[in-house]
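tmp note - Bifunctional protein FolD
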Amino acid sequence: MATVLSGTLVAQQLATKLQKRIGLLRQQQVIPTLATIIVGNDKASLLYANRQQQTASNLGINYQLITLSQQTTEQQLLQVIQELNQDVIVDAILIQTPLPAAINPQVIRQQVAPIKDVEGQSAESIGRLWNGQSGNLPTTAVAIMKLLHFYQIAVSKKHVVIVGRSSIVGKPLAALLLRENATVTIAHSYTDNLASLTRQADILVVAIGKANFITAKYVHPGCIVIDVGTNRDATGKIVGDVAFQQVQAVAQMITPVPGGIGPLTVMSLLEQVVMIAERREKQHGR
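out:
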């Protein structure tokens, strides 16, 4: 029976450390501020934003939620971003996806000032990531690395298979793992014989957005399984991409859903807001 890796526990410890850092910033009259933009009324986006807002408030971070109608044009959204770029009080900007079909997310992401690009999606941020330089990083990938470090799971010389190649999980996580000398394979919807590949993994990370897709046949005994998915099954229950009970019987360690990577992603996002605010305080001496 696999050991359950609690992301909630890691997030709680990170929150305690963040409160101290935020307290020091407030002594310098610097209040870390995150602005999140939602276009439309996607329920998952609104729920995630509510979780951000609640956690930010508990920590002492100023949270601005900007909601725009589904009919918002790309030019109108760009204007909002430019105003936030110029607002000296706003440390970080998050563009919540999905966006309406008429808006190109690639165009939008490149308009966020790199220093305020809290999700690490600008061309400059991506370049810094792959060059091994410091900068803003995609926070779900950061959350996964924090979980591995907390539980002292070394990735050096390990074969890590990532199922999913998104710009917020699969690709940036591969870069972070390579920094720590892991051997990384990225699988996706065009990968043949997926199960034969995933069974080779020492560590399996799943981020494909398909409820209970990974079953026991995809996992070899002793594997460490990180489930990034958040879905609702036919009964409305929140589940991951991994069939938890099946895989728990085979794996060595596994993250739950909920209570795994989700809460740690929110906390990693807010930690990055604090880091950006600390840079602001250092540069301006405020």
